[in-house]
Inverse folding.
């Protein structure tokens, strides 16, 4: 159950007209009172006029001298049930209204509270309207009314057996206002300007090494930027706007970084650059596949640190992992981009808590994010696609490790966000890994029976407790092919298997064999993309010999035509 405290207003009549009107963003059905301060207020939905209700609610206001009346005297809140909750009765909504009104301090039950009414015009929510003058002429004590309402709604969920919303801790990004949502809907946009700007700024900050680079990325993303500067010329803060997002006067609507998310203010972004080892200039990288391999290794080390590190270091790893996910979402192939984008958006919430990140512990992950950005877009096939599957697989384990850590710290919203990100990563992995794993499975199935048996015996020797499950999985042939590749490259497959399973549990893996394939191919420095026979023969032949072969080869029909 979600309570929302709206901005204070100046017109009781205007708000009542909206509540009893047809609705602007959703249809209002049968508007009527379900509760009020004295149980006797006139109901415009049942024969009274809107003016009758307005005059009753505003009476304490007009009893004050004009110079003591508050400029903004209209208090407005809404309380909405969660999707999937049962439809509550009017009597149940009336009880909920009284509890929320009392909890917020609008009418604490001392006999002299504010006048208020609860209006229902839909199955899933009510609106609360009150005049911010008590019967005794004093102002109500409604400080932190939003937090108070949230706390009471957690109790209401338990009492009415409704969907339990994870309790907040004040570290979440500010939600779009109803006006912003309505504006986006009118303009045919899927998201509000605030949400689009938050994602754009978050991606621009991923892997940056300096203030100049950060603002250059914002400009490259097409945002309008204003800097707030000190007399010395130093930048104190910034605001950004979408070029097409304008107010009624045609001026751009700017948002400060802190209004987008608590960790996007300029001072908080500067903390990322403190003691980092990221290169201040765009150092050349060897390509998307190499950047993804390095990111996989950095994520692996971060998973181990989350398991065993102190709180500040763990918080830094989780925050930097969010940058890696943003970089992956920005640079991966189109067929995985949607799920990776959703994963990055969800994990962003997991990256903020009251545990302060100790920057400097996150150097490897921040460098990985930087390399991903500067390596450019990855293709969805060959080594690019296979290493993308490899890094997504490891990112999934990091998200589940982050969820476990947050759960131990009783960070309910962060734990839920990390698990949500993990589900999106799982979906992205299945899409990305389908082709390379299918080719590896085919190679494993074509191994000689004696070779297949030898690999199975290795698994039984190295993983006696997991062997039965691994050998029965559809991905087993791909693991057999990988073990064969590792042996041919001079590695000890038993040692590789033992190392891959010893350092992290596999309980959260859908397919243990898939996980082991990527861990072995990374640790043994094997190509992530399975080789074709032609590619393998080509690599065995020295370049000079290949050139000589091509020069002396008999002309084929196609070469004759050229």
């Amino acid at each position: 159950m979600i309570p929302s405290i709206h901005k204070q207003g100046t017109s009781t009549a205007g708000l009542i007209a909206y509540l009893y009107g047809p609705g602007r963003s959703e249809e209002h059905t049968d508007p009527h009172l379900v509760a009020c301060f004295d149980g006797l207020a006139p109901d415009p939905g049942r024969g009274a006029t809107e003016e009758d209700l307005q005059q009753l609610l505003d009476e304490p206001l007009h009893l004050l001298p004009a110079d003591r009346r508050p400029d903004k005297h209209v208090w407005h809140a809404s309380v909405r049930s969660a999707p999937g909750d049962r439809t509550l009765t009017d009597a149940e909504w009336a009880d909920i209204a009284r509890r929320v009104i009392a909890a917020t301090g609008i009418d604490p039950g001392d006999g002299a509270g504010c006048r208020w009414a609860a209006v229902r015009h839909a199955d899933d929510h009510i609106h609360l309207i009150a005049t911010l003058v008590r019967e005794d002429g004093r102002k109500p004590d409604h400080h932190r009314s939003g937090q108070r309402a949230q706390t009471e709604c957690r109790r209401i969920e338990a009492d009415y057996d409704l969907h339990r919303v994870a309790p907040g801790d004040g570290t979440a990004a500010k939600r779009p206002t109803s006006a912003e949502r309505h504006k986006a809907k009118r303009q045919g946009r899927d998201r509000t300007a605030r949400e689009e700007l938050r994602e754009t700024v978050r991606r621009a900050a991923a892997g940056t090494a300096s203030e100049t680079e950060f603002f250059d990325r914002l400009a490259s993303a097409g945002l309008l930027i204003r800097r707030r500067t000190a007399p010395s010329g130093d930048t104190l803060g910034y605001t950004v706007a979408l070029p097409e997002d304008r107010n009624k006067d045609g001026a751009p609507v700017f948002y400060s970084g802190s209004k987008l998310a608590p960790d996007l203010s300029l001072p908080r972004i500067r903390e990322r650059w403190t003691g980092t080892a990221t290169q201040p200039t765009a150092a050349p990288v060897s390509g998307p596949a190499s950047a993804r391999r390095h990111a996989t290794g950095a994520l692996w080390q971060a998973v181990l640190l989350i398991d065993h590190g102190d709180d500040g270091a763990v918080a830094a790893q989780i925050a930097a992992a969010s940058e890696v996910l943003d970089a992956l979402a920005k640079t991966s192939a189109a067929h995985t981009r949607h799920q990776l984008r959703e994963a990055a958006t969800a994990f962003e919430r997991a990256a903020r808590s009251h545990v302060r990140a100790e920057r400097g512990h996150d150097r490897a992950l921040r460098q990985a994010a930087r390399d991903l950005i500067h390596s450019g877009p990855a293709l969805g096939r060959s080594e690019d696609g296979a290493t993308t599957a490899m890094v997504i697989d490891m990112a999934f384990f990091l998200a589940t490790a982050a969820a476990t850590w947050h759960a131990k710290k009783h960070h309910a919203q962060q734990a839920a966000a990390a698990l949500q990100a993990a589900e999106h990563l799982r979906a992205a992995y299945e899409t990305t890994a389908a082709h390379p794993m299918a080719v590896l499975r085919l190679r494993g199935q074509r191994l000689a029976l004696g070779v297949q048996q030898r690999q199975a015996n290795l698994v039984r020797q190295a993983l006696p407790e997991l062997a039965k499950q691994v050998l029965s999985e559809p991905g087993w042939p791909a693991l057999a092919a990988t073990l064969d590749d590792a042996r041919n490259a001079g590695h000890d497959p038993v040692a590789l298997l033992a190392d891959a399973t010893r350092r992290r549990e596999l309980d959260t893996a859908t397919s243990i064999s898939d996980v082991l394939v990527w861990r072995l191919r990374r640790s043994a420095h094997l190509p992530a993309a399975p080789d074709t026979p032609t590619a393998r023969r080509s690599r065995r032949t020295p370049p000079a010999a290949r050139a000589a072969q091509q020069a002396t080869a008999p002309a084929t029909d196609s070469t004759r035509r050229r």
Notes: The two ends are 71 Å apart (CA to CA). The first helix runs from residue 12 to 19. The longest strand covers residues 125-134.
